[in-house]
TrEMBL record, chains A, B:
CDD domains: ProRS_anticodon_short, ProRS_core_prok
Family: Belongs to the class-II aminoacyl-tRNA synthetase family. ProS type 2 subfamily.
Entry keyword annotation includes Magnesium: no
Assembly notes: Homodimer.
Protein's name according to its UniProt entry: Proline--tRNA ligase
E.C. no: 6.1.1.15
Length: 445, 445
């Protein structure tokens, strides 16, 4: 993309309404625009990151054997009356009446609807196990939306639901989700720690939240430093293998890690003092096993091998897709702007032309643009007639992990400069070497 | 995907509520499930086709130089009070009140919001031309939703908006959209004819609808048969070239083609009788030029080169993404089921194992599955323990364009059977030849 043809409305001043760094940088980098309290438009740059995150979530869910579908944003109230949650949910549920005076609502979550889909179409144990998920906009009418997309009202979430014949199989689904989530967050450049959580209004016995450590987090967290040494890496997982998934879950749940809701001082005190940590964390996902809480009242039963009818064991598993943008920025920025991890960056590299209009630098930039594109990379070329300082400031603010700087002096020596956004380190090399280096870096992502 | 692990709830009986063939087949093929009047869940097979269509729309919009973003589903009523449409829109607008008693609505379209984004960030003619679009769920509270996704209430639409300095530039944007739409529909295997239309509540002087000919269409259409001979083909278009785009638009608008709303019997009568056609059509898109209708009341102005301030010229351009599934099926089916064009098929080919459990056919099917996947194709392997007849019926119903049948007799002769869903023609060949053939067919799509 050429910046002269893009829509990237960066702001020079700090927006006064933004209290935390991710909100501030998302506004300044022209990623979002507030349309009403807690409701945002995703401007082109923000939309690109949102799509990258969504794509990673899809890929990892499909890898785990989970099946994508899409439920609508609006739901009939009657479904929620069946589970008993219509009256329980409170004012966070946005209730709507249509022209025929039917009670509807903007879905804050989808346990009822997915259970309805299941009971309408599945009746035999032979069709189990089954895990269905979708990535869809939700609405929760927060009384005081704040922190930008971190605590919005209209937000994008991946929510998946497993249907299993018995407890053991449902726990395997739970473990499978934990494993797939660990992989998902790591691909986004995040360390999200699974922490034992308290069950909320969804209900459930086994539940873990995934928290990203950040000083602006809404939860207080306590953990054994040993957990931050764990890496998922590029291990290949057979998601059908119960023992393999269970072993990975054990590895990540053995070190102490809890939020304030489940924190136990006595157990925490047993950790060697030098490994005891407390911090704040941002919740970016949660997994639940809740058994037959919805299948029983809603009649989601299957016939077993011996001919009896039993309610299925379920769980629900969520990733806060839109919130992740905020969490990633909270975890990865400096005083100049965002620092995108390579896995989610909106563009793979920026090209800065130091002397727009100079035919040799223009030609070199165009060639770089073409060569990077030919290698499957997407560069953002700052081809505006601007000072070098302004171009650098924009690149730093929007946080592309790599920048290639092209100037007349370098070109006459056959060199461009490749700069790493995180370390600030620059290296001179030929254009071809810079393209090769970037292709190699991104091939490993 | 292996069918034994998929969620494909096909129905044996014809659902009584479905009056038209696309609705019937989408329900029978397990593509959708109604959750409330005019509100559907997209089951896995339907979701896959929806994503393919969405992907084609994105690719063609980006090719034309248009920039994707994403606006929220809910909008504040105040924006619509500025344009004067809040009171005009009538009962099709779903009005919502949040917990703080603020008036909101579920967006039926986005002229107001995109104009708000534009005026907040753009103030100079130097930032023009600009075309922004999104693909987002909309809601129109139809009094009598029917025909499945063809006339739903919650529906997915691509809507794009151009911002230009003057009339000529805006007309180029209009032409660019027409060209990109012709390409878009043709990639989906559809012939969508641009027809001069009457302007609706959005307003506008220049407007064309795109109609797919089908007996179940909602509009009566009149056209010169010459237009159905036009093919876009694989021509490469320079979307910046005004003359080139204009010439393509002329080519497609020269033959008479109008809906009943703009039909003119006198002009129609001048077409040679053997080329005069009347039929019914399904609207799958519309482009509008409406000038300063929104920019003026909403203050979307830019400063020109001579320092004056002028309201920008705008247009809006829509493609009915979810409705396209219905339109494609209406245009492409037989009495056994759907026939997907290769460009939008949910899976590239079906593999039917005639004797599940026979080790030689099982092995041959697994090898085929692997080989197709390795070539970047996505097969659906019917590995259920079912009669051949039932497997064929399912494949015919869900409409994959190609089927590979693997049986013990063929395998002993080193052959599989490749069948074309549309023609019904079968050909025996080696597994390797079938994989090569399919890879070749899809490489051209």
């Amino acid at each position: 993309m050429r910046l002269s043809r893009y829509f990237l409305p960066v702001l020079k001043e700090n927006p006064s309404e933004a209290q935390i760094v991710s909100h501030r940088y998302m506004l300044r980098a022209g990623m979002i625009k507030q349309q009403a309290a807690g409701i945002y438009s995703w401007l082109p740059l923000g939309f690109k990151v949102l799509k990258r995150i969504e794509q990673i979530v899809h890929e990892e869910q499909i890898r785990a054997g989970h099946i994508p579908l899409l439920m609508p944003t609006l739901q009939p109230a009657d479904l929620w009356r069946e589970s008993g949650r219509y009256d329980d949910y409170g004012e966070e549920m946005l209730r709507i009446t249509d022209r025929h005076k039917r009670d509807m609502l903007y879905g804050p979550t989808n346990e009822e609807m997915i259970t309805d889909i299941f009971r309408s179409h599945v009746s035999s144990y032979k069709d189990l196990p089954l895990t269905l998920y979708h990535i869809q906009w939700k609405f929760r009418d927060e009384i005081r939306p704040r922190f930008g997309v971190m605590r919005g009202r209209e937000f994008l979430m991946k929510d998946g639901y497993n249907f299993d014949l018995d407890y053991e199989s449902a726990i395997h689904a739970y473990n499978r989700h934990m494993v797939s989530y660990l992989r998902t967050y790591e691909r986004m450049g995040l360390q999200a720690i699974p922490m034992r959580a308290a069950s909320g209004p969804i209900g459930g016995d086994n539940t873990h939240e995934f928290l990203v450590l950040a000083s602006t987090g809404e939860s207080e967290v306590f953990y054994d430093a040993a957990i931050t040494d764990l890496k998922f890496g590029d291990r290949v997982v057979n998601y059908d293998d119960r023992a393999e998934c269970e072993a990975i879950v054990k590895e990540w749940t053995a070190p102490y890690a809890r939020t304030d809701e489940t924190h136990d001082e006595a157990i925490f005190a047993e950790i060697p003092e030098e490994r005891r940590r407390s911090s704040r964390g941002i919740e970016v996902g949660q997994i639940f096993y809740f058994g037959t809480k919805y299948s029983e009242p809603m009649g989601a039963n299957v016939v077993t091998a011996d001919g009896s009818r039993v309610p299925v064991h379920m769980g629900s598993h969520g990733i806060g897709v839109s919130r992740l943008l905020g969490a990633i920025i909270e975890a990865s920025h400096d005083d100049k702007g965002i620092i995108w991890p390579e896995g989610v960056t909106p563009f793979h590299a920026g090209i800065v032309n130091l002397k727009q209009g100079d035919s040799s630098t223009d030609l070199a930039c165009e060639a770089l643009y073409r060569d990077l594109s030919a290698r499957g990379l997407e560069p953002l070329y700052d081809d505006r007639d601007e000072r070098a300082g302004a171009k650098f400031a924009t690149m730093d603010l929007i946080g592309l992990p790599w920048r290639i700087t092209v100037g007349p002096r370098g070109i006459s020596a056959g060199k461009v400069e490749l700069t790493n956004r995180r370390t600030g380190e620059s290296e001179e090399m030929s254009s071809g070497a810079a393209v090769d280096r970037l292709a190699q870096i991104y091939a490993g992502i």
